[in-house]
Amino acid sequence: MNARSFPTLHDCDPGSDDAITLLTLLGRPDVNLLGVSTTHGNAPLSATTHNARALLKLAGRENVPVYAGALNPLVREPVYAPQIHGVSGLGGVPLPSPNVPVRSEHATLTLIRQLCAQPGEITLLATGPLTNLALAERLRPGVLKEAKQIIIMGGSLENGAPRLGNTTPRAEFNAYADPHAFDVVLKAGAKLALIGLNLTRQVQVTRARAQQLAAVGTAAAQTCAALLDDYLDRIGKLGQTVGALHDPCTAALMLSQELFEWEEARVDILTDSGKRLGETVQVDGEPNVQLVTGADEAGIYALVAEALGRLP
Predict the structure, then answer these.
(1) Are the C-beta atoms of 194 and 152 separated by less than 8 Å?
(2) Distance CA 228, CA 232 (A)
(3) How far is 195 from 275, CA to CA, in rounded Å?
(4) Could you tell me if 245 and 199 are in contact, meaning their C-beta atoms sit under 8 angstroms apart?
(5) Half-sphere exposure at residue 81, Cβ-oriented, CA atoms within 13 angstroms
(6) Which residue ranges does the record assign to the Inosine/uridine-preferring nucleoside hydrolase domain (predicted)?
(7) How far apart are CA 281 and CA 155, in angstroms?
């Protein structure tokens, strides 16, 4: 194990950008990936779990355990994002068929077990709806405080004012998909870093960036480039020409904090039904998150490309 090691758990809903995040983690010799937990989100749980296993197969890392988690949100009905990620979650991009089965332990119990076994040591990347984390906190109050840090991709904030959402006019997808879980996590007293749309829109997805990854030459890098091209095709049908590299920013923040700027803030989420459901708001009070506000786009892509170059 590398002398500078990052014990890590990845809670995700693959999803093209989750896929790039996971492959980035797998390509880093300094990341000790303890497990992948899956949730509903970009696609149903069965699809996101299959995708996680297929990505591990692609990377030659089927030794990393996969734990299936929440089938549905805490309160609301599930919502998916086929218009962005396809019905499968990974569009039409082919992946190898996985061999290793899902572990029998529920993802929520895995989070509790791992965090309690190594208090203050594990960084938890959360790149999907936060249902698994909220369930863990409800089952074992205070367990999320055992994480060294929880880096969340979700919400949208800038200077105290909401930016346009990507699911409703006010809400980002992960926050909207389970706002009640998001609320539980924000109130858990854990060490949280929040990466919202205001940050990820600074890290643009373009055809040129997809070509940059393809030029790395490995199968993993070419798969990631294909995922970005598929994503651009899909948002193009919605009238957008440029996308955002959402989830990989979580891995980049853990690995290279110098690529980012942040400030302490207090963030709440609106959980009442209606047009503002899932909206994140910055309020007065004791800070509960590190709100990430700035990013080095070129540096993040270089980090991702370097990691993908280490994979098959």
Answers:
(1) yes
(2) 6
(3) 23
(4) no
(5) 28
(6) 10-300
(7) 9
Give me the pLDDT at residue 164, please.
Answer: 76
In Å, how far from its chain's centre is CA 165?
A: 17
What the block records as the tokens of 243 is 């996308």
Is 246 known to be catalytic? Answer: yes
pLDDT tens digits, one per residue of 96-113: 999 989 999 999 999 999
For 220, counting Cβ atoms within 10 Å of its Cβ (0-12 exposed, 13-18 middle, 19+ buried), the class is buried
Domain spanning 6-308: CATH superfamily = Ribonucleoside hydrolase-like (3.90.245.10)
Q: pTM for the complete prediction?
A: 0.96
Say whether pLDDT at 50 is over 90: yes
- Does the bond joining 128 to the residue before it have cis omega, within 30 degrees of 0? no
Query: 2-7: long-range contacts at Cβ-Cβ below 8 A with a sequence spacing of 24 or more?
Result: 2/29, 2/30, 4/30, 5/30, 5/31, 5/32, 6/30, 6/31, 6/32, 6/123, 6/254, 6/255, 7/32, 7/34, 7/118, 7/121, 7/122, 7/123, 7/148
Catalytic residue among 10, 40, 85, 246: 246
Q: Which H/E stretch holds residue 78?
A: none
**Residue that has been written with the tokens 């709440």 in this structure:** 268
- Comparison of pLDDT for 161 and 195, the residue scoring more: 195
For strands 204-205 and 243-244, give the pairing: antiparallel
Percent of the chain scoring above 70 in pLDDT: 97
Question: CA angle, 98 as apex, 68 and 24 as ends, to 5°?
Answer: 75
- Each domain of the chain, given as residue ranges in start order, spans 6-308
What is the C-alpha to C-alpha distance for residues 291 and 217, in angstroms, rounded to an integer?
35
What is the DSSP code (8-state) at residue 183?
H
* C-alpha pair distances (Å), 129 with each of 14, 69, 176, 244, 275: 11, 11, 8, 18, 19
Query: What's the token pair of residue 267?
Result: 């963030």
